[in-house]
Amino acid sequence: GLCGVSGSGKSTLLHQVLAERDPETGDIAKTSAHWVRFDEQPGEIALVDQSPAARTPRSNTALYAGAWDAIRTWLGNSDEAKAAGFTPSHFSFNAGEGRCERCRGAGWETVEMQFLSDVSVPCPSCEGRRFRDEILAFQLGGKSVADILDMTVTEAREFLGPRTPATGQLGVLEEVGLGYLRMGQPLTTLSGGEAQRLKLVRFLGTLGKETQQALLLLDEPTTGLHRDDVSRLIALLHRLVDAGHSVVVVEHHRDVLAACDWLLELGPEAGPAGGQSVAEGTPDAVSKAQTPTGKLLRGGDDAFVVSENRSTRTRPTSIQVRGAREHNLRNISLDIPHGQLTVLTGVSGSGKSSLAFDILFAEGQRRFLECVSAYARQFVEQLPKPDIDSLTGLPPTVAIEQRITRGSSKSTVATVTEVAQYLRVLFARAGTPHSPVTGKPLVSLTEDAVVRRVLERTKVLKKGRIHLAVPLVRARKGHHQPLADWAVQRGSRWMRCDGTMVETTAFKRLDRYSEHDIDVVIADLLPGGLTEKPGEDPVEGERGLRTVVREALALGNNSLVLLDTAGDEIAFLSTSRVDAATGEAYPEIDPKHLSWNSPRGWCPECRGHGRMVEKFSADEEEKLHEDAIADRVGEAVCETCQGQRLGPIGRNIRLEGKGSTKSFPELLFLQPAESLAFLHSLKLGPRERAVADALIPEIAARLSFLGSVGLGYLSLDRAADTLSGGEAQRIRLASQLGSTLSGALYVLDEPSIGLHPRDNDHLIASLRALRDRGNTVLVVEHDEDTMRAADLVVDLGPGAGRHGGHIIAQGNAAAVMRAENSITGSSLREPMKHPMRGKRRSVSDRGEGSPESWVELEGAALRTLRGFDLRIPRGRLTVVSGVSGAGKSTLISDLLAPMAQFGIQKEKDKVTGKEGLTILGGLKPVFKTLTGLKGLRQLVVVDQDPIGKTPRSTPATYIGAWDLIRERLAQLPESSIRGYTASFFSFNTKGGRCETCSGAGRIKLEMSFLAETYVPCEDCGGSRFGPMAREIRWNGKSAPELLAMTFEEAAAFLSFDARLRDLCELMAKTGLGYLTLGQSSPTLSGGEAQRLKLVSELARGLPTFMDRARGKIRPSLYLLEEPTIGLHHSDCRKLLELLHALVDQGHTVVVVEHHPDVLAEADWLIEIGPEGGIEGGHLLHQGTPEALLKKKGSPTAPALAQALNIKLV
After folding, report:
1. Which ranges constitute the DSSP H helices of 445-541?
2. Where are the domains of the chain?
3. Which range (40-44, 63-67, 151-155) has the least confidence?
4. Residues 48, 217 contacting (CB under 8 angstroms)
5. Single pTM value for the model
C-alpha cells in the first residue's frame, strides 16, 4: 500500500513512475524506465484510476464488464439463430443489422429541452428495447435479447449458468456487491462508488484469467464505498494476490492499509516538504512509526479528533443597521429579524424607500458583485455604497419593485412569467404539427415516396443541375468550421450558409454568437436522370438516385433539400411531417417556430406584433432595429395571422386535451386556471409524456401562483405594457413564489397597489409563504391589513423630506398604535370618518343641488364590457371600483377618456360609436353614444405611467414651474440689457449654465469596475449655473437660490405671480411642499413621484388668465387612475381634500380606485364586476355608496362598510 498525507507524492509515484504515464496527457511514456527495476517483468501493468467509467450512456454494465460479447456469441451461434439466419453480430446494439436503425441501438432518443436538462425518451420504433422486431421476437431458453438486458446481474448469471463464459465475469460483479445492477443499465446512471467498482471488476475479470503475473495499480478504490463494501473489496484484492498478481494501492482507508502485506509511507508533509520515504514495512511495523499513518494505524479515526475548544461566532439572527444617513435618514439604527415579515411604513417621503432599497437592497447587490471578478463587474450597473456606519447580518437580496412596463413591446404576461418559454418547448417537443392548408395532422412518407418526388423534379430538368443537399444545422450558434472541414474530407464542393452558396474550400468561420442554417450538397441531379456524387462519374437510373436519397435522409435526420445553383430552395423533402394533400414537407419543429421574437417563428406580415405594421423597403428593414419597427405598428389586427403573432408553422402545432385540441396562441388566450386545466387533461403517448412531465410542473407552479396574488383574471397573451405597476410587481412576486429560494432577503415596494381589498388576504398569505420558506421579507407598505399581519412594523417620520428620517415607532401593529407621535399609529387608532365634509353632494336627477347634467355612455362593450349604460354626474366626485381585472381601466381609460377627448376637442355634445371607430379602431362600434360633454373646457387624465427620473429632471421642471421662472428672469431689465433669453437660465442647454459640469452641479468620476462616484463641481459649487447667470437676481434671489427653495417657501415668495403661486400651492396641498424646486428626480420616493405626476396633470386645469379676467372657471373633466398609489393614510386625506376642492370649483372628477377611504368619499359610486377577466365587465352598481351596501354579492361592499363604520346585514 502507498500511503501518506495528501500531496506527499503517492499519485506521482503510482501514475508517472510505476504506470509510466505522461503527467500531461496520461498516455504511456517510457520516460521513467530507468527509475523502475523488476526482479521479474510483469506480463501486464494495469492502472485503475478515478476517471469516469464511461462518458456515453450507450455503454452499459454487461458491455463494460466484458460479458456481452460472450452472450452475443452464445445467442448467435445457437442452432435456432442459425436457422433464422442470425449471427452474433445481429445481437450487437452498437453495430450490425439487428439493432434498431432509428435509435441506432441506443433504445432512447434525446429530446433537447433548451433551458432545461435534455430528456431521454424511449425510441418510438423499438420502444426502448434497442433491436429490430425480428431480433426481439427471437428467444433462447425462453428469453429474448431484451429480456436478458433487463435482468439484474444476479438474475442473468443464474439464467446463463455454465452455457457461456459470461457467467464467470458476472460472478465477479456480484463479488464486489454489484449484482443488483441491470445488465443494460447505462453507466452514466451509476454513482461514483458503483462506477469505481465496475472499473475494478473490468480489470479483475481480465487479469484473473492471466497465467502470467501482472502488476495491478489502484488509485483509492474505496472512493464512494460503504465500510461493508470495503471488506468485500479487500477480499477480492487478496484473491488476486493469491492468484500470483501484484497489487499496489494508493489508499487512506485504515481497513485497507491494515490488510496490506507491505506499506510505503511518503512524507513527511505535502508539496516541496514531501516526496520522501518516511516509513516502510508491514502494517505492524509502520504502526510503531511516529508518522501520520503510524498514528492512524495505532489509534484509528480517533487519533485525529479535533479539539472543540475553538472560539465560535454566534450566527446573526437579524440584519443590523447602524448609523444610516442616506438621503433624509437621520443617523438611524435598527435590527430587522431574519425569517420574519417586516413592514416599513410612514408618510410618503419619510425615508422608507431610502432604507429598503437604497441601503439594504443596494448594499446586498454591491456585496454580491464583490464576489465576482473585476472584469465581470465592468459590465454590470454598480450601485453606490450607502452612507451608513455598519450593516451586518445581510443575506442575499432580491428586490421586487414597481415597474409599469417590462421587456419589449411584444412582451406578454406569458413571457414575463416565463410560462411562454416552457409552453414553446412543450408544443415543439410534444405537439402534433398540422397542415396550414388543410388543418389535418402531418403524416410520414416512405423512402420510396421521397425518391419518386425527386424523380419528378429531375424529369422536367432540361439543362443545368439541381443540388441535392442535407440540412445539417438549423438555428444553431457557432463558427461551424469543423462541419466545413468534414464536408471537404468527404469531397463535397458546395454548402449553403444562411441562404448563400459557398465553396467548402473557401469557407470562412461564421459569427459564433449568431444562429446559422447550413446545408451541405452531397450530390447533383443532371438532365437525363443522371445522379452525380462528388469525385464520381454520373450514374443513370433510379438505383443511383435511391442510394443518394438514402444517404441524405440518414445524414439529414430524415430530411433533404433540393436547391438551384443560386442557392434558392426548390423543395424540402422529408419522410416525416408531410402534408398528405399537397405533398409539401415541413422542417423539424423547433421552439423558435413558436416564438414571435424570432424571424423563424413570427408572422412575416406583422413581425410578431399581431397588428398591422407599416410597410418599408428591404433597405430600410436592414437598418431598422426592433424598437424602431415597434413605432410603426398600427391598431388594426394583422390579417394574415389574425393577431396570433406566429407564422403558419407555429400557428398549426396542436396539443390534444380532453374534448378539444389547442394551438399555442389559443392556449395563451385563456386565463391561468383554464390553461392549467387543459394541460392537466392532455392525451399523450409515453414519449410525449416524458417531455410533459419535465415541463408541466414548472408551468403549473407559475400559473397557480398568479392566482394566489390576485392575478387569475389576466389572460396569458395580455400585453405587458398594459399592466399597472401593482400588477407588474405581483407578477414578479408570483415568479419568486414559484422558486424554492430560501435564506434570502426579499424587498417589496407596496405589493398591494392596484389590489382589491377582497384579494388582500391572498397577497398576505403569499408573503407569509415566502417568509415560512426561510426568507426575510421586508415590505414598504401603507396597507392596514398588511401591517396587522406583519411580525414587525417600523414607522418612519414624523413628516416627509427634511421633516422625516427618524424611527417613530417599532413593534407589532398594536405597539405602533400606542405610539403618541406616530401618524401611522394615529391612523390605525382613529380611522378617517366619512364623509369628511359631513354630508355628500346631492346626486338626484331633480331637486335642490342636483347635477346640472350627466355624462352618459350608452352600450359600453369594449373588450369584456357587457354593453351596459353608464351615467356620471357632472360637478361631482365619482369613484369607479371593482375587483382587479373587472374592466375599470378598460371603461374609463381605454373607452371614456379617448372618446371624451375627441368630443371636447371637436366641441361636440354627442359622440357616436361609428365616430369612435376612427379613434379606437376595430371593425364594429364598441358603444352607442357618449353625451353630456357640452361646456367642458378640457380633459385631464392622470394615469399610472411613471415620471421620467433622469438626474437633470427636477420637480420644478416637471410641473413647468421652472419654465415660468426662466421667462420671468429673462424679462428682468438687467437680463434684457445683456440680451439673455429664457434659455439662458436653463441648466440643460449652453448659455448661463456652468460648462464645467454641463449644468449637472456635480462631476462623475469613472471608477471602472467600481460604482460611479460623483463629486460637487468646484467651479459652480453645485449650483449648476455660471457666474453670469448667478449675477441676475429676482427680488434678491438668483436662479440657484430659487432652486434651493422649498415649494412652501416659493409659494410665499412668488405670491405676486398668480400662476407660479398656484403651482407651488398645489404642490403644498398634495403634501409635497417640503421638496425643493431643484431636487433631483431620482431621489424621489414612489409616493412622491406619483403625487408630482398628479400635480403636473392638475396644473393643466388651473384657471387661465382669461378665466381669472372673467371671474368664472370653465369646468373640466378629470379622470384619475389609482391616485393613492404610494400614499400614506394621512396623505390620502390631503388628496381627498384636493379632489373635493376641484369639485367645488365645478369640475367633474372620476377616480378609478380600490382604497376604501376614497370609495367612502364618493358622491357617486360605480362598481364593475363581479370577477376579473371574462367573468367581469358587468355593471353591478351605480349610485351612492350607501346604496351599494344593500347590494348582495358585491365584492366591494364589505370593505366599504368597514370604512363607513356600518355593519352589513
Report:
1. 447-459, 481-489
2. 1-53+191-299, 55-189, 318-405+723-823, 413-431+595-720, 432-588, 854-937+1127-1204, 955-1082
3. 40-44
4. yes
5. 0.74
